[in-house]
Amino acid sequence: MKAFTRLDALAAPLPLANVDTDQIIPKQFLKTVEREGLSKGLFYDFRFDTEGRERPDFVLNKPEYKGTGVLVTGENFGCGSSREHAPWALMDYGITCVIAPSFADIFYNNCFQNGLLPLVLEADEVQALMEEARGGNHKVSVDLEAQSVISPSGRRFGFQIDAQRKTKMLQGLDAIGETLMAASDIDVYEHKRSLDQPWLDKAPH
Amino acid sequence: MQTMSGKTLYDKIWDAHLVAEQDGEAILYIDLHLIHEVTTPQAFAGLRAHHRPVRRPDRTLAVADHNIPTEGQGLGVGAVADEEARLQLQTLEQNVRDAGIEFFAMGDVRNGIVHVVGPEQGRTQPGMTIVCGDSHTSTHGAFGALAHGIGTSEVEHVLATQTLRQKKAKNMRVNISGKPAPGVGAKDFALAVIGAIGTAGGTGYVIEYAGEAIRDLSMEGRMTLCNLTIEGGARAGLVAPDETTFAYLLGRPAAPKAGAWDMALRYWKTLVSDADAHFDREVHLNAADIAPLVTWGTSPEDVLAVTDTVPGPDSTTSPDKQVSVQRALDYMGLSAGQPITEARVDVVFIGSCTNSRIEDLRSAASIVEGRRVAEHVRALVVPGSGLVKAQAEAEGLDDIFRAAGFDWREPGCSMCLGMNPDRLAPGERCASTSNRNFEGRQGRGGRTHLMSPAMAAAAAIAGHIVDVRAYLR
Ligand code: SF4
């Protein structure tokens, strides 16, 4: 996994609540067996019309938002389908931080598997950032180590994050490798369960 | 030793699966891992890249469901017209063969939607931990199993370690007392709960459903309810196992047999929340107050009684939400204040892991029998599995649907997410028994109204959204 330490990037406002993963990446892009290249489907129905032409009024299509790295959006971002293609698509597009008042559970978790920082701020702070991101000078600084966001005008917002998640994000740790260090615990557990609940081992046919 | 307070069902399952703790994160053992073609190719690729084997192929079951066509399945994967879908299906086949994982291929009578197949085979059992790369894994909570959706990185993690790294969630209990009126059932309960708590109301919680109305539900009804738990933001929903659960499981292919059954039963009967267990949040509803519900907007929390009118942006005070409400109205082609029964439907879809089990099909067929689908409506029934289809055919339900003008299809996810050829055209309005009414979910520009199978059947006959209670016999 890619480590996330700090980021200075353009922020784009997406002032909508409940943006679901079907919006982030529609189903026609899920038929891939790869992780890469999904940016072509990111926010597809927002970015393109039915003829496949760019919608000039969508924020990411505006010239001043080319190269966006931070998305500032409404509550419950990432609800719906568990598809990890959503964080993959955001990252493939170059967005490595999403700021919102709240996130849906599975999406939130999926972000941490990929080095995408889902950053929770208070609703009024998100609102303030959103306003600034609408302006011309909309570069935001995110510092994970210091747990702070600096707005384009220099306002500083602190944010909370689980300590373990933060450490792993900073180091880009591989969760599987880490769990496998407890492989002997898993062996012991399996052995005990085979004694207590032998019916679970009865492999069906 | 004295404990502070009793344990909830969730606490009990959690404790029974705790393998170890690393830096405050639990490593939880996973009893059953369900996999399908869409969310696994990158996980298997990841394993190969690190030379990691699948730890417990025997605890894994694979199906092909998300993007299979619902016609001509007997022709095999090679005949799937969509090239990318075909590649994904072939990739799954190759991966499960290499790993030695049991697999029900497209066309196998045991194949179907992953959340229909697991319970039907008896693979889903009380007290288990169950995961799948699909958010509606919450369905299996109907058996008193801790079940939730995971992303592809976690699929890879479970394949490699048979565990998942987890933080414990909070406990919420949703109590539904009383008896529902005729024409009201599990789907309406589920929509009522989401309407009450909102799509994010359950975030961070595991929900246990309790109360008379839940005890009275069949396993099919409980699965519908737990299935929709994720639409309320909670990863998992639970119903404590009871005689209904045990009766459902007895004799299923993978259920414990003979002496093992008795042993399992003794354990399963301990899977209830203690009387003094603490819940962080409690919600109370009365089944008698719930009317047949439908969604009007593009989020499952946008629900109203079928007798109601469509709300406007002034129904909320949050500015973000006002924008969302107006956007939803525009997208759905509805205006504030309009009775929802004025919404004329073009398509009726009876299917998905929410409502494609035998009881759902019986309920819809009872409304449809001897009636005709309205002239302008395209209606289809997609059974949840090959076995559901066979059972329905044995009961003659397929004849009832066909005689009324429904299409009778082969099993799969189908128009629930429109990855296969079954989808809505832009602007088409659909009465659907599925679980998501998001923009574009059933096809770009498609307009989805979620409702129960009986309500969807009635809409097919009437040609518009209608109160099923006028169609009950
Ligand atoms: S029927 Fe729909 S919700 Fe259920 S597993 Fe298939 S795609 Fe997911």
What does this protein look like?
The complex is a heterodimer of chains A (205) and B (473). Chain A has eight helices and seven strands, in the order βααβαβαβαβββααα. Chain A has 205 residues and is of the alpha/beta class. Chain A has one domain: Aconitase, domain 4 (Alpha-Beta Barrel), CATH 3.20.19.10. Chain A has a seven-stranded mixed sheet. In chain A, a hairpin with a 5-residue loop joins strand 6 and strand 7. Chain A is globular. The mean pLDDT of chain A is 93. With 473 residues, chain B is α/β, with parallel strands linked by helices. Chain B contains 15 helices and 19 strands. Chain B has helices at residues 9-16, 41-49, 83-99, 114-120, 152-161, 186-197, 212-215, 219-227, 243-249, 258-268, 319-332, 358-368, 386-394, 397-404, 453-462; strands at 18-22, 25-29, 32-35, 60-63, 102-104, 129-132, 146-149, 163-166, 170-177, 205-210, 236-239, 281-286, 293-295, 303-305, 347-350, 378-381, 407-408, 429-432, 447-450. A five-stranded parallel sheet of chain B has the order 5-4-3-6-7, sandwiched between helices. A five-stranded parallel sheet of chain B has the order 17-16-15-18-19. In chain B, strands 11-10-9-12 form a four-stranded parallel sheet. In chain B, strand 4, helix 3 (83-99) and strand 5 (102-104) form a beta-alpha-beta unit. The longest helix of chain B is centred in the first third of the chain and has 17 residues, at 83-99. Chain B is globular. The model of chain B has no long low-confidence stretch (mean pLDDT 95). The interface between A and B is large, with 62 and 84 residues. The structure holds iron/sulfur cluster (SF4). Residues 65-66, 113-115, 134, 136, 352-353, 413, 416-417, 434-435 of chain B line the site of iron/sulfur cluster.
